[in-house]
Design goal:
Elements: E1 4-7, E2 13-19, H1 22-38, E3 47-54, H2 58-76, E4 78-88, E5 91-100, E6 112-113, E7 119-122, E8 128-135
Antiparallel strand pairs: 1-2, 2-8, 3-5, 4-5, 6-8, 7-8
Helix pairs in contact: 1-2
């Protein structure tokens, strides 16, 4: 099963991520965003940053997760390669693995996640799927 795919969108970046668990689908969303930022770079998981976020529902948690991933570049020069995520009700315990953004050239910028067309759901096959649009 593929981890994520990019979908057509007129002016932004739209993706769908998949996972066999809720934890995995959020982790694959981080991979999708990392692949946009990395462009042609192969990002190394040289450092780890652990944090927790609280949300109101699955979509809000997704928004806050990606917002945090994007803001780490701006605030700490930390570019994320992947993440390990544990869903605890309406909270996420996240360990981002990444590197200093200064070690890479030509990284793409994402302004922010959006709530446009966002969803997180369990499919009839008992797998997880989410969708998000990124403002670039």
């Amino acid at each position: 099963m593929e981890k994520f795919e990019f979908l057509p969108h007129t002016s932004e970046i739209k993706f769908r991520a998949y996972g066999s668990t809720l934890n995995e689908v959020y982790e694959n969303a981080v991979l999708a965003v990392a692949s946009v930022i990395a462009k042609d770079n192969s990002l190394k998981p040289a450092k780890a940053k652990t944090l927790q976020i609280a949300g109101t529902d699955k979509e809000n948690l997704l928004y806050k997760l990606i917002e945090e991933q994007i803001s780490l570049i701006d605030s700490e020069n930390f570019v994320t390669a992947k993440a390990e995520i544990q869903v605890l009700g309406n909270n996420l315990k996240i360990t981002f693995y990444g590197d200093d953004a200064k070690n890479y050239s030509g990284l793409d910028e994402i302004k922010s996640p959006t709530y446009a067309e966002i969803y997180v759901k369990e499919t009839p096959e008992h797998r997880w799927e989410l969708q998000m649009v990124l403002d670039v």
